[in-house]
Amino acid sequence: MFRQSKKRVSNRRNFADKKDEISGQFILGGTTTEEEQKLYESLYSSKLSFYELPPRGEITLDQFEVWAIDRLKVLLEIESCIQRNKTMKEMEMVVKPLLQKLLPFHTDALQDRKKDYYSHFILRLCFCRSKELREKFIRSETMLLKIRFNMMTSQDQTRFVQSLHLPMLQFISEEEKSELSTQLYQTISGALQFQLNLSDESQRRQYFQQEKFIKLPFESVIELVGSRQVFIKKGFAYLPQFQQLNHIANEFSNMLSVELAKTYQNLPRLNEDDRLLPILHHLSSGYAVADFQQEDQWGQASQGEITAKSVYTDKISSNFPLCARNLMAGLKINHHLRYQGRQQLSFFLKGIGMSVDEALKFWSEAFTNGGHLTMDKFNKEYRYNFRHNYGLEGNRINYKPWDCRTILSKPRPSRGEFHGCPYRDWNVDKLTLELSQGMKLTPTQVTSVLDSVQRTEYTVACTKVFEITHGGQTNAEVNDQTHIAHPNLYYERSRAWQKKKETVST
C-alpha cells in the first residue's frame, strides 16, 4: 500500500514475505497501472462501491494522510448536520460542494477512485477503536452513501444496485406487479405526492406505470412497515425502486459494522509501524473539520475595519463567538487577562484583522485604563509578549489563531480566568442565562444547544447558536462548510452575513 522507504525497518514482521495475502495486511505489493485500472473498474462498476475488498497497490504516506483528512472533513460535516437535525435536502446542499472539492466521484479518473477507496479503509483503522467511534463512522458513511446515491442518474443507480448482488434485492415481474397494482398504487400514492412532489393524479399514475418493485422480507425495511409506506403480503414487503435506498443503506450499515469489528481485532498487528500510528492517532482524535488556517482568509470580512476603538463597537463585537465575548467581558471588568486568556484573545483579534500597532494600542489602553497599570509596567512586562504573537520577537513565528480543538486542549479556566470554551466550561445555569438573555434564544432553542453540550459536542452547540442568531441560515455561499470549529470562522461568517443584510436593507 505504501512505497518502500529507505528508513524502513527491515525486520518488521507485518510486511515480510506476505505480499500475496489480502486480509490483515496494511502494506501490499504494488500493482501496475493497467492492473489497478482493471481492479477499480471491477470495484466501481458504477459510481459507488460497498468497499467489500481491501485495496491493493501503493500510495505514499502523504497520500495516506491527505486523502484520509479530506474524507474526514466530509464525514464530520455530515455528522454535524445530523446532530443539528438538518433535512436530507439541506444536508445535500451543504455536502455537494464539499464532495466536488474533496471527494469527487462522478469522474472515471483512476486517482479519484483510489482516493475514495483508500480513504474509506484508512478511516476504518481510525474509527474502529471504540463503540462510539464505530457508530459515528457508520452513521456518517451511510449518510454519505445516501447523498451520493441521490446525486447519481437513474441509470447509474440501477447499475449500482445490480453490482451489489444482494440476494434479497430482486425486482418482481410485470405479471406480479399487474396482479397487485391496486394495492401497490394505494400504498405508494402518498409517498409519490409528498416525497417526489407529484401533486397531479395523472402524473402519479404515469410514474407508477414505469416504477419497478422489489420483493423482500418485511424485516429488511421495518422502518417503512411501521409507517405503512410499503405493501405487505405473506411476510414480504414490496418496495418501490425510489425507496430502495433505505434497504441498501441498511445492508451497507450492517456490512460496515461487521467489518469494523474485524478491523479492530486485527489492529494490534499495526502497532509495530511507527509511521502510521501518529497519523491514525491524529485522525481519530477528531481532526477539526474547518481548521481555517488559510492566511488569506484572515480579516477578509472586516477589510481593515479592526482598530483599538472599533473592536468595542456593536458592529464588530456583535459578530464575536461566545468565547471571544467572554474574554472581552473579562478584560473590561478586570483590566487584565492572565496568560492563556491573553494568548487566546490576542490571536483571535489578530485573525480578524487587527494590526500589531492597533493591538499594542488596544492592550495598553485596556491594561492601563483607570490607573490599574502604568504604561511603563505594561511596556516592561507585556509589550514583548504581544509583539511576539505577531512574529516580531523571538523566533519570529507567524502564530495562527487558535481553533476550537486547540482551545479545548488547554487547561480549564480557574477562578479569575476567562479563556477556554464557555460551552464546555460554564455551568448549565450560567450558559442558559447567557443564551436566553444575552443571545435571545427561545427555551426550545436553548434546550437544543444544551443537548449538544451534554453530549460534549461543543462545536455543534456553537454552530447551532450561530445558525439560530443568523436567521437560521447555513450560509453555504460564505463557505462550503457549515460546521464551525474555529472562532475566527464564526466571526468571518457572521460579519459577511451582517454586511449582506446591510446591503439588502439599503
TrEMBL record:
UniProt cofactor(s): [4Fe-4S] cluster
Keyword Iron among UniProt keywords: yes
Domain DNA primase large subunit C-terminal: 318-491
UniProt cofactor note: Binds 1 [4Fe-4S] cluster.
InterPro entries reported in the protein's UniProt record: DNA_primase_C, DNA_primase_lsu_euk, DNA_primase_lsu_euk/arc
UniProt GO cellular component terms: alpha DNA polymerase:primase complex
Binding site for [4Fe-4S] cluster: 323, 404, 421, 462
GO biological processes: DNA replication initiation; DNA replication, synthesis of primer
Signal peptide feature range: none
MF annotations from Gene Ontology: 4 iron, 4 sulfur cluster binding; DNA binding; metal ion binding
Keyword annotations from UniProtKB, A to Z: 4Fe-4S, DNA replication, DNA-binding, Iron, Iron-sulfur, Metal-binding, Primosome
One Pfam family hit: DNA_primase_lrg
Gene3D superfamilies listed in its UniProt record: 1.20.930.80
Function of the protein: DNA primase is the polymerase that synthesizes small RNA primers for the Okazaki fragments made during discontinuous DNA replication.
PANTHER family, per the entry: DNA PRIMASE LARGE SUBUNIT
Family recorded in the similarity comment: Belongs to the eukaryotic-type primase large subunit family.
Name under which the protein is recorded: DNA primase large subunit
Record organism: Lachancea fermentati (Zygosaccharomyces fermentati)
Source taxonomy: Eukaryota, Fungi, Dikarya, Ascomycota, Saccharomycotina
